[in-house]
Amino acid sequence: MLLVLNIHPSRRVDLLTDQTLTFDRDIEAWDYVDGFGNACSRITAPPGLTTISTRFDIYDTGQPDITAWDAIQHDIKDLPDEVLVFLLGSRYCDTDRLGNFAWAQFANTPLGWGRVQAICDFVHNHIRFDYQLADATRSAHGGFSERVGVCRDFAHLAITLCRCMNIPARYCTGYLGDIGVPAVPYPMDFSAWFEVYLGGHWYTFDARHNTPRIGRILMAVGRDATDVALTTHFGPTMLSRFDVITDEILPATAE
């Protein structure tokens, strides 16, 4: 199995405790960094039930996602070589099926941040969130047509529309607790959002929530959910239980 369950190397400087994967059985794990710079692990899981877990404290600024309305959209010829892959179609981001719609819908929006925000507004209003209708095979076009999905479907559709409009966009997965917002009546899960390359930087966008959030902890980035799957298995497996808990640690009050 391949595991993408560590926080992203860019956030390790913020750790207040160690963050390591633990197993309830004698399993050898070895780490590697994939082609997108994510910290991954490899294991050979024996037959039977295996519990994989991690627990850690991490510092966060407590500030919401950055908003930069003046961030420019680059001409393709000016993009760094390593960014070009995030303009291309991928497994879940079927740009070839949404290109005509994207140009018809967004050609008259302002270049740069305003165009990405227009895409987020559209996706946020177009897809209905329904945890019970999650589908691991649903592509961006599927989410567009069915108009239902979970956070990964919001991200895939927004990424695809951005790429159709020549804006590099990449898929992100990580922790996003109900911090600074009312708690939602759904089981806590990892969250999916996306980043776009504008003005020489990667900026966070979230088409599902469509508002800057606090306490976003990045785990991994890639072209789409294929590259950042929590587990990729080469043989039959069954997920028997899945728990994610993300809580804010409040400062101790002085007596």
From TrEMBL:
Domain Transglutaminase-like as annotated: residue spans: 143-209
A Pfam family of this chain: Transglut_core
InterPro entries on file: Papain-like_cys_pep_sf, Transglutaminase-like
SUPFAM superfamilies linked: Cysteine proteinases (SSF54001)
Source species, domain of life: Bacteria
Protein name per the record: Transglutaminase
Source species: Aureimonas glaciei
